[in-house]
Amino acid sequence: MAIRAVLWDIDDTIFDYATASRSGMRAHLDIEGLPRAYDSLEAALDVWDELTAVHWARFASGQTDWHGQRRDRVRSFLGVVLTDEAADAWFERHIVHYEAAWSLFPDTLPVLDQLADDYRHAVLSNSSLPNQERKLRILGVRDRFEALLCAAELGVAKPEAGAFHAGCEALGLLPEEVVYVGDQPDIDARGAAEAGLKAVWLDRAGAGGRPELVRITGLAQLPDLLRRDTRFGAPDTFG
Question: Which tens digit of pLDDT belongs to each residue from 42-54?
Answer without folding.
Answer: 999 999 999 998 9
